[in-house]
Amino acid sequence: MKELLSLRFPLGNEGMTTVRLATGGVCSQAGLDLDASEDCKVCVTESLLLLWHAGYGRAELVFFEENGLCARIAGEESGEGRACAEDEISFALLGALASDVCTEKREGRLSGISFRFGK
Amino acid sequence: MTDAELFRKYRETGDSAIRNEIAEKYLYVAKVLAKKFVGRGVEYDDLLQVASLALIKGIDRFDETKGMQFSTFITPTITGEIKNYFRDRSRLVHLPRKVAELRSAVKRVSDEMLAESGKKASAREIAERLGVSEEEVVRAAEAGIVVSLDRPAPTEDGGGYYDVIPSRDDSFEKLESHDELRSAVEILNDRERELVRCRFGEELSQTETARRMGVSQMYVSRLERKILEKLRERMGEGAV
């Protein structure tokens, strides 16, 4: 496992563009094609939205290489969740775009998401 | 009525009113997904159209007896259609796999025939050997030619290809809407008019046109170029 980038940041609309840009850079570094890079950005965004809706105030995002580009996103600073009707779509979208999608739960609540792209 | 009841009723009756009711209920999924793919060079409205069509197709394929939520079922279906749409669009720029495969087959057969007979095979001979049309062979051969837009074009003023590639307005579409077109076409002989009618009236391919006129596809290609030159001369610079 080769770590490529790790980020910790507050969850919210303001930081999404920065995270998406960083994701694009990592995808390029990992040799993903343009389509896969865009899909990866969508998956990162959806994961962050899911954690945000689950009530987390911050997130840690780690990219590493292991049979492709892997991302692991964990929620931090737990708060009150507010389930969103679109969460189900986000989960299905993750499953449609990425491989090996896994979710972690803590006390019955979503706490982390990981997935893989390419190779 | 619950979703499962709606789907069961639709499956039993095929009533399009029920399908419309389901589609309206789940149109939000298409909207949400279309928004997720904005920013990849396709307008939201186009994405929504693709997503909506996938939604309608998905309604026909959904089996409510399998216990899955429709929104969970339809999301990958719509996503797949949107990704197919992106892939098809990119084929407008990239060499399609089929053409690339044909191109390599043309090269292989051409080399084989050269080795067999000692002379270069014609497009028709290669087409016969491969079991494809002559036009496909010619297109495949042309498809592999890649030139830089900055490379000098074979023009008198020495400008690059970038300078001479026509804009979208400089094509037959503009010619067709030109007031002088009718009088310009009068300078063409019967054969040339027949070609214009086939190619730009009936929108036949060069091969189909050739078959209709009882000539070769290469002849159609040459005659087409000649017609364009004649019309360009007649209508003045910048018209065609």
Task: Describe the fold and architecture.
The complex is a heterodimer of chains A (119) and B (240). Chain A is an alpha+beta fold and 119 residues long. Chain A has a single domain, classed as Histidine kinase-like ATPase, C-terminal domain (Heat Shock Protein 90), CATH 3.30.565.10. Chain A contains three helices and five strands. In chain A, β2 and β3 form a beta hairpin. In chain A, α1 runs antiparallel to α2 and α2 runs antiparallel to α3. With 240 residues, chain B is mostly helical. In chain B, α2 packs across α3, α6 crosses α7 and α12 crosses α13. About 4% of the residues of chain B have low confidence. The interface between A and B is medium-sized, with 14 and 18 residues.
Summarize, please.
Chain A has helices spanning 13-30, 34-53, 87-97; strands at 2-10, 56-65, 69-78, 99-106, 109-117. With 119 residues, chain A is an alpha+beta fold.
Q: H/E order of the elements of chain B?
A: HHHHHHHHHHHHH
Content-based structural category of chain A: alpha+beta
Annotated CATH architecture of chain A = 2-Layer Sandwich
CA-based gyration radius of chain A: 13 Å
Please give the count of helices of chain B: 13
- For the CA atoms, what is the radius of gyration of chain B? 26 Å
Q: Please give the largest β-sheet of chain A.
A: 5 strands, antiparallel
Q: Classify the beta-strand content of chain A into a percent band.
A: 35-45%
Secondary structural class of chain B = mainly alpha
Helical coverage of chain A, percent range = 40-55%
For the structure shown, list the relevant keywords.
heterodimer, A: Heat Shock Protein 90, five-stranded antiparallel sheet, globular, B: 240 residues, mainly alpha, 13 helices
